[in-house]
Design goal:
Belongs to the TRAFAC class TrmE-Era-EngA-EngB-Septin-like GTPase superfamily. EngA (Der) GTPase family. GTPase that plays an essential role in the late steps of ribosome biogenesis. This is GTPase Der. The protein is α/β, with parallel strands linked by helices and 162 residues long. The chain is 31% helix and 22% strand. A 6-stranded mixed sheet has the order 2-3-1-4-5-6, sandwiched between helices. Helix 2 runs parallel beside helix 3. The radius of gyration is 14 Å and the shape is globular. It binds guanosine-5'-diphosphate and magnesium ion.
Length: 162
């Protein structure tokens, strides 16, 4: 079976947009409304001669259980079922309490974890990217899922981790 990469993170950070960018086509549902990805959805992805399965997560609502707990649970599940995990953070917002809670879960992972600093649409946001080192998940990798900026570099890192 091909290796599995799970994409986790808060609603609206751009997970589905990034999944579409990686796929090179629009299959994941992108919405301005948080929590629109109904389920965990798996796609066949391909880069640099390697095939892998890409799992887009979401579907939680900030309900009674709390957003933070729901996202942490997704991260836990991703850690157990995927071969590598990609945490997506919105660099224009910076690390929120929820991002920190998820990072805390992922730091226990025995599998590779990559950190994508999304929405880095231009160089002025590189300082905000560097600020994400505080999450303790290694190098934050800047990317603009919307414009495609640096997505090739991120994919190279993903392939190296899988
Ligand atoms: P998800 O909830 O994490 O799956 O996030 P979505 O992929 O649905 O995106 C949420 C919003 O962020 C949408 O309005 C996207 O167009 C926007 N977005 C995603 N990636 C980028 C990016 O790289 N730059 C900017 N400026 N906006 C982005
Ligand atoms: Mg989504």
């Amino acid at each position: 079976a091909q290796p599995v990469l799970a994409v986790v993170g808060r609603p609206n950070v751009g997970k589905s947009t990034l999944v579409n960018r990686i796929l090179g086509r629009r299959e994941a549902v992108v919405q301005d409304v948080p929590g629109v990805t109904r389920d965990r959805v798996a796609y066949d992805a391909y880069w640099s001669g390697r095939r892998f399965t890409l799992v887009d997560t979401g579907g939680w609502e900030p309900d009674a259980t709390g957003l933070q707990a729901a996202v942490a649970t997704q991260a836990e599940l991703a850690m157990q079922t995927a071969d590598a995990v990609l945490l997506v953070v919105d660099a224009t917002i910076g690390a929120t309490a929820t991002d920190e809670a998820v990072a805390r879960v992922l730091r226990r992972s025995k599998k590779p974890v990559l950190l994508a600093a999304n929405k880095v649409d231009d160089d002025r946001l590189l300082a905000d990217t560097a600020a994400l080192w505080t999450l303790g998940l290694g190098e934050p990798r800047p990317v603009s899922a919307l414009h495609g900026r640096s997505s090739g570099d991120l994919l190279d890192a993903i392939i190296a981790a899988l």
